[in-house]
From TrEMBL, chain A:
This is ABC transporter ATP-binding protein. One of its GO terms (molecular function) is ATP binding. The keyword Transcription regulation does not apply. Residues 5-235 form the ABC transporter domain. SMART domains: AAA. The keyword ATP-binding applies.
TrEMBL record, chain B:
It comes from Fibrella forsythiae. The chain crosses the membrane at residues 56-78, 90-111, 132-158, 164-190, 202-221, 241-258, 267-289, 328-348, 360-376, 388-409, 429-456, 462-484, 505-522, 528-547. It comes from the Bacteria. Keywords: Membrane, Transmembrane, Transmembrane helix. This is ABC transporter permease.
Length: 258, 557
């Protein structure tokens, strides 16, 4: 089976700083991949490279079997992306915005309209479908963004903190959606700082630190490498070299009390 | 109903094919942008948010048209054979107004990266995106070009027939397209030569510089025209370097039609005028668009760049040397809260690009005005002249009053929750610190510059005037501060402050005018200025104390 994402020695610079130190990655279809790492590790840069936002990379990258250098536009057509804290034109209504996005993908507008309305209904936004988004809460915007990233039924979806701002019920719903997307043969590339969620929904966890992959495998496999029974949060702490959080917290309190 | 812009673009399929853009996507983007413009609460466009209301937009259009009338008049009185000079000025004016509005008002659209966030990862190529942006801008620029050129076009059409009128209309629009091309090239050049980190800042200064430059140009233009002598009887002498000046292309083309001057030179000029803007457009979408977008993408990324994780160092951080602001603050302020207000305003005014763009051009206008008027006055150095120099001395005060209005404003106004949640008992202290920072940082250096100029021209006899003007400027500032609504620094959205002009501010304007007139009157009374000086200092101190006592209920938010 052709891998959905295949990178070979992917290197990316920002200015003169090397952000990605040669990422080798092969992702099979139908998986939820949890992509985690500390701030500044290169998560966003990896995702931005894979979706074609940062074309000046070194190494070989193919996405959905297409070469990222030469077929970026075709790739963009078939992937979905929901950035973290993404901007949207909030002076539009959800329906107008989704129609606009549909037009960018050159989808049939009547189909988009029907689909968008239905998806909004499923996210309990049907009564707000024609209200301007300026008044929307963060969770409502996030729902619209999720729909806008999935509207064209992509084969590969990149999600960056997709649960942020959602209420508890919506979180459960979105987690289910992610699971069922994967079960239906699509691939979800999931980046987050919330370890509990990553632990639960990922088929495979990839941890990067300072631009390098330092762990790769299913959660149970990662556990097996370290002490069994530890959570992903603890594993993450150990692997990224900051498991002394207890002592740090003590020092913190101590400094406050000075 | 289809907006006029889309109505026109729908009729240009050949152009889009030539440029190689995806028209379906282009149309969708344009439609959304136009729709967004319609919905913006304050103005027709997001980039005007900074300083203008919708009304102000129409007022500025009317002003452009009025200036255009001057050129229309020149076009009417100039003899047909001497049409080239007034036509050059006319088209040059159209080009300058278009470029200026692009630089000052539309730059955020040219450099907008929020579009990127929404569209770049979708299957829209950079060419289509840039073209959409350019067409959007051009659609507004055409309005401006029409406002500026309308009277001139009518004048030409009336004098020389419909063909000449139509041609000059087209030439005006060509100027608008050319302006877009030039601005894009300028920005692109800047992006090539300036490191990414400093780009936005440098562009900011370029904008300020351009605005001042063009303003100075306006002031000088009448002088230059006097020198030229606009009899225009002698036929225009063409030079080779004239081929490099776009307004002359248009003027030459008009000359061709009006005076039936059909020769190689005029045909070349006509060709340049009609072809270059489209060639520029073509170059822009074909060649420059990808570079531009990738540059913008990195610009964007930089803002969003996550902090690079550093290993937690165990060593103590080296104490940096105390910045100037901190030193000044500890000399000039007496309470911690005032200290905080001083340094806060000092830092933010130095870093907020929008603040700089709103206030610094005013500073440049003042200087340009002072110098140009000074030159005009040098010939007549009587009583008249010295009262003019009094006027110059008050520029500092006037400038700082607009700056005072601006420090309440920030795009980041939501961060002002920190004031509410902090146990601050007397917000007046914070306000007082802020006003001190403004005076020290922005007013004093500027005032010294103006005072230096006045002393240089007037000699030591102007010393009492300088001192009194300095104190009076402070009083004017404090009166404005005390009488207008008080906002904590950087706590307001732009729109709120703009709409809060009240009768109180009118009253303070009146008092300020009175002070200026009083100073002028005092120059006629022997020792009047020396007597007034301590009195005014006393007034200033009282006003400052009042302002310092501001309580929570007096603060508007």
């Amino acid at each position: 089976m052709t891998p959905v994402i295949d990178t070979h020695n992917l290197i990316q610079y920002y200015g003169s700083t090397r952000i990605l130190q040669g990422i080798n990655l092969s992702v099979a279809p139908g998986q939820v991949v949890g992509y985690i790492g500390p701030n500044g590790a290169g998560k966003s840069t990896t995702i931005k490279t894979l979706i074609g936002l940062l074309p000046d990379f070194q190494g070989e990258v193919s996405v959905l079997g297409l070469d990222l250098r030469t077929q970026a536009m075709e790739i963009k057509r078939r992937i979905g992306y929901v950035p973290e804290n993404a901007a949207l034109y909030d002076l539009l209504t959800p329906m107008e915005y989704l129609n606009f996005v549909g037009q960018l993908y050159e989808l049939d507008s009547t189909a988009v309209e029907r689909k968008a309305l239905e998806l909004l209904r499923l996210f309990s936004l049907e009564y707000q479908a024609n209200d301007r988004m300026t008044t929307f809460s963060k969770g409502m915007r996030q729902k619209v963004l999720l729909i806008s990233g999935l509207l064209h039924n992509p084969d590969l979806v990149f999600l960056d903190e997709p649960l942020s701002g959602l209420d508890a019920n919506a979180v459960v719903l979105v987690k289910q959606i992610i699971r069922q997307l994967a079960d239906s043969g699509k691939t979800v590339f999931y980046s987050s700082h919330i370890m509990d969620v990553v632990e639960k929904i990922s088929d495979r966890v990839i941890i990067i630190n300072s631009g390098e992959i330092i762990a790769d495998g299913s959660f149970t496999e990662l556990q097996a490498q370290r002490e069994t029974g530890s959570s992903l949060e603890q594993l993450f702490g150990q692997l990224t070299g900051s498991d002394g959080q207890n002592t740090t917290a003590e020092e913190f309190i101590h400094t406050l009390n000075q | 109903m289809t907006p006029p812009t889309l109505f026109i673009t729908d009729r240009l399929p050949f152009l889009w094919r030539l440029l190689g853009v995806n028209y379906r996507q282009l149309r969708a983007i344009l439609a959304v942008k136009l729709q967004l413009d319609n919905r913006r609460p304050v103005a027709f466009n997001q980039w005007k948010k900074a300083s203008e209301t919708n009304n102000a937009y129409w007022v500025s259009l009317a002003l452009y048209a009025l200036f255009g009338a001057v050129f229309a008049f020149l076009l009417t009185v100039a003899p047909a054979t001497g049409i080239v000079k007034p036509a050059t000025l006319f088209f040059g004016y159209v080009l300058i107004v278009c470029t200026m509005s692009l630089i000052s008002d539309f730059s955020s659209v040219v450099l907008d990266s929020s579009d990127n966030q929404i569209m770049l990862f979708r299957p829209v190529d950079s060419r289509t995106m840039l073209t959409a942006r350019v067409v959007h801008i051009i659609s507004y620029l055409f309005t401006i070009a029409l406002a500026v050129g309308a009277l001139g076009v009518v004048a030409i059409g009336y004098r020389f027939g419909a063909v000449a009128g139509l041609l000059s209309l087209v030439l005006c629009l060509m100027m608008a397209i050319l302006a877009v091309f030039l601005t894009n090239v300028i920005y692109l050049l800047l992006m090539q030569f300036v490191s990414n980190d400093r780009l936005r800042e440098v562009i900011n200064y370029v904008q300020i510089g351009m605005v001042v430059f063009f303003y100075g140009g306006y002031q000088l233009l009448p002088r230059l025209m006097n020198d030229d002598g606009f009899s225009g009887l002698q036929p225009f002498v063409w030079q080779t370097w004239h081929y490099a000046l776009p307004p002359l292309w248009s003027a030459g083309s008009l000359d061709l039609v009006v005076n039936r001057q059909i020769d190689a030179r005029h045909l070349i000029l006509l060709g340049l005028a009609l072809v270059v803007p489209f060639a520029g457009l073509y170059l822009m979408t074909r060649v420059l668009a990808p570079i531009f977008s990738s540059k913008l993408a990195t610009l964007d990324q930089e803002e969003k760049a996550e902090p690079v994780a550093r290993p937690i160092s165990t060593s103590q951080p080296v104490a940096p040397s105390l910045p100037l602001a901190e030193k000044l603050a500890s000399w000039l302020t007496s309470s911690p809260l005032e200290h905080a207000g001083f340094t806060f305003v000092w830092f933010i005014t130095g870093r907020d690009r929008k603040f700089k763009l709103r206030t610094y051009p005013g500073l440049g206008f003042g200087l340009a005005y002072a110098v140009v008027m000074g030159l005009n006055h040098q010939s007549s150095m009587g009583r008249q002249g010295s009262s003019f120099f009094l006027f110059i001395l008050y520029f500092g005060g006037i400038y700082i009053m607009t700056a005072l209005m601006q420090i309440a404003i920030s795009d980041n106004y939501k961060a002002a929750w920190i004031y509410e949640s902090s146990p601050m008992s007397q917000p007046g202290l914070l306000l007082a610190g802020g006003i001190k920072a403004l005076v020290i940082k922005l007013m004093l250096p500027y005032f010294c510059l103006l005072a230096g100029y006045v002393l240089y021209v007037q000699g030591t006899s102007a010393i009492p005037d300088v001192l009194l003007a300095c104190v009076n400027s402070l009083i004017m500032l404090l009166i404005t501060a005390v009488m207008s609504k008080r906002h904590l620094p950087f706590s307001m959205a732009q729109d709120v402050v703009r709409n809060s002009t009240t009768s109180r501010s009118l009253l303070s304007m009146f008092i300020i005018g009175l002070i200026g007139v009083a100073h002028w009157g005092l120059t006629y009374i022997p020792y009047g200025r020396w007597v007034a000086l301590p009195v005014m200092i006393g007034v200033a101190v009282v006003l400052f104390r009042t302002y310092q006592q501001t309580q929570w209920h007096e603060v508007e938010n």
